[in-house]
Write a structure and sequence with these properties.
This protein is an alpha/beta fold and 149 residues long. It has a five-stranded parallel β-sheet, with helices on both faces. It is globular. The two termini are 27 Å apart. The model has no long low-confidence stretch (mean pLDDT 98). The structure holds D-ribose. The site of D-ribose (RB5) has 8 residues, from helix 3.
Length: 149
């Protein structure tokens, strides 16, 4: 898969390990920054990654900040993005199967690198089930339209 990755200054430190892991799994990864640990703002990098994924330039996006919260909230403001913040693999898997998430976020202050890798693996391996879930995804899309997004 083609995967866009981004973080803020807090998630920056864990990002190389996740990028390397994704490459080991055979994925093509593009890092949308930041490229130093200088204090910055998560919406900048979340927006870049989310817009690339929403435009269809990448299959998936992965975002890291301290908690995964700010960076996932931002991602969910971009039309067509369904981002999940996870600190365990069960929700990551179900978020694919039921919610067809296209962005995974997690907190580098919340999970260690090995748990983060496990979350990433479950998320990437799980397939969207469609069926009864599609009606609900369509309802989310309708809400986006109603709100001019
Ligand atoms: C940065 O201090 C921190 O707020 C950020 O990394 C993230 O946790 C926000 O949700």
């Amino acid at each position: 898969m083609k995967i866009a990755i981004g973080s803020d200054h807090v998630g920056f430190e864990m990002k190389p390990a996740i990028k390397e892991y994704l490459e080991e799994l055979g994925h093509e990864v593009e890092d949308y920054g930041p490229y130093t640990d200088e204090r910055t703002d998560y919406p900048i990098f979340s927006k870049k990654v989310s817009e690339e994924v929403a435009a269809g330039n990448y299959d998936r996006g992965i975002l890291l900040c301290g908690t995964g919260i700010g960076i996932s909230i931002t991602a969910n403001k971009v039309r067509g993005i369904r981002a999940v913040v996870c600190s365990e693999p069960y929700s990551a898997k179900l978020s694919r199967e039921h919610n067809n998430t296209n962005i995974l976020a997690f907190g580098s202050r919340v999970v260690g690198t090995e748990l983060a890798k496990m979350i990433v693996k479950e998320w990437l391996d799980a397939e969207y089930e469609g069926g009864r879930h599609q009606r609900r995804i369509d309802m989310i899309s309708e809400i986006e339209k109603e709100n001019g997004r």
